[in-house]
Each structure stands twice: as structure tokens, then as C-alpha cells.
Amino acid sequence: MTTASDVASGKTHTDENFPVASHLIAARHRPAVMAFYNFVRAADDVADHATLTQAEKLDHLDRLEQSLLGRRDDEPVARPLRAVLAERRLTPRHAQDLIAAFRLDVAKNRTADWADLIHYCSLSAMPVGRYVLDVHGESDSTWAASDAVCAALQIINHLQDCGKDFRDLDRVYIPDDALAAAGLTVEALRADKASPALRGLIRDLAVRTMGLLDDGGVLPRQVADFRMSLECAVIIALARHLTTTLMSHDPLSERVHHNKFEYLRIGGAGAARTALGRLLRRPAAPAAARVGRA
Q1: Is 197 in contact with 188 (CB distance < 8 Å)?
Q2: Which helix (H) or strand (E) holds 209?
Q3: Tens-digit pLDDT profile for residues 79-89
């Protein structure tokens, strides 16, 4: 029987826009984060696969979820995460939410409006931050800021890849109502270069995304774990830079990704600012964390 791992894209955590289980995170937590990432990566690859039918994709996703829950054991990529959840007494809900997002990707290829986009992010992005915070034993009082940051990261990815997603997957995350207000259809995403109207629309969405980052900017101060707070600061700094780039660049024809030097420079500056801030004025600790949230 074919498993999700058999149809993997080959993409790994080193190919992502933002750090995944970097060495800023304590070594004892990195395997737990990677187990989650590898499970989610496998599910994402299924949803984006070029030749699997809709029924085959949904079957793979069902088997991944059932293997995660221990109701079957034929998806090897689920075993490490299942073990982590049991060992740390963590809920499978965050991973299940990601599976729900990928089911949406399989069955739904357009986005109605901003609220629809945020709803998708509530399944496809916010659970990632919540899981990592749970692994670190953080209070769920950090979730609101984390949700805003994670939604922003997801939307940045959507804007960067808007042309590729449409051409390769016939999938559009730019809201229909925003396209219509700009006098555009999804066919505008097929061009080699964005029209002035599309550039304006992408800029407007980037401005809204920066608002999410503003809302989530308190996260590094809220997180109790020092090393995790630095990871959050790096991610937010990188996200702000990419969002600013999207305000002035065309993702259909220009590079809107970090090169290695930018990644290190911008992320390092973000970590340094947070480290200095915590050393000079230690923030109040969040409310006591709950273990094994249901």
C-alpha cells in the first residue's frame, strides 16, 4: 500500500521561509517540533500532489489522521508524533486541525474574502504555533499573539506563491472580493508580470498582514522560555521584512524571498533586540501553563 511518505515532495524544514526547530530552541524540544513538522509536511505534500486524485488525497489524509490517533498503524510518519503526544500528554487537536486544512485544500480552490482566509489560517497556521508553545509548556494566554503571527506567516507564503499556486494547483488564496474590487479575475495571476492593479491589491493585503504582525509583536515578551522567545523574535523580524518587500515588489516577476545573508542578518537583529530587552527589563511571566490540554 502506498503511504504518504511515498508521495513526498522532498521538501524539508530547510526549505521553509521561517526557522523550524532551529538551534535557538532547546535541544530537548527540537525532536518534538520536528515530529510535528514531518507529519504536517507529509500531509501537505499529499494535498499538493500533482497526480493523485481527490479521492486518493482524502484517503491518504484520513489514514494519516487515523494513524496519528492510534486507530491504525500504516502511516509511519505518524508514529513519532503519536509517541511525542503520549509522552508529553499533549492533544492531537493541533495536528488534526492541519489535516482539516489540507482537506479544504483538496476540495476548495478559491477564497471568498478576508474572513475566509483567516478561517483557513486558523486551521493551517495557528495550530502550528499553539503546538510549539504547548511543547514548551507555555500558557495558552500566548495563543492570541501567536495566532496573529502564524496567520501572517501563512498569508506571506500565499502572496509570495500566488502565481505558482494558481498555475500549478489552480488554487487561489487571494480573496475573490478583493480581486473583484480591483477589477481583476484570477487570470491576472497567470501573467509573467503583475499588472498595476494586481500590484496594488498585493500591497493592500501586505498592509493588512503587517497589521497581524503588529498584533502579534508582543509574543516574544509573553513567552516565558528565553530561547523560545528568541525564536519568536527571529520569525517576526523575518516576517516583517518579507511583508515590507511584498509592499514594493511583484511576486510574479521578482524575488520576494530572503537570501542566506538577509536571513541571518535580519533574524539575528531580531533575536538581539529581544535578548537585550529581556535582560534590561524582565517581563512578567504569563499565567501558569497547563499540561496536556484537551
Answers
A1: yes
A2: helix 196-216
A3: 999 999 999 99
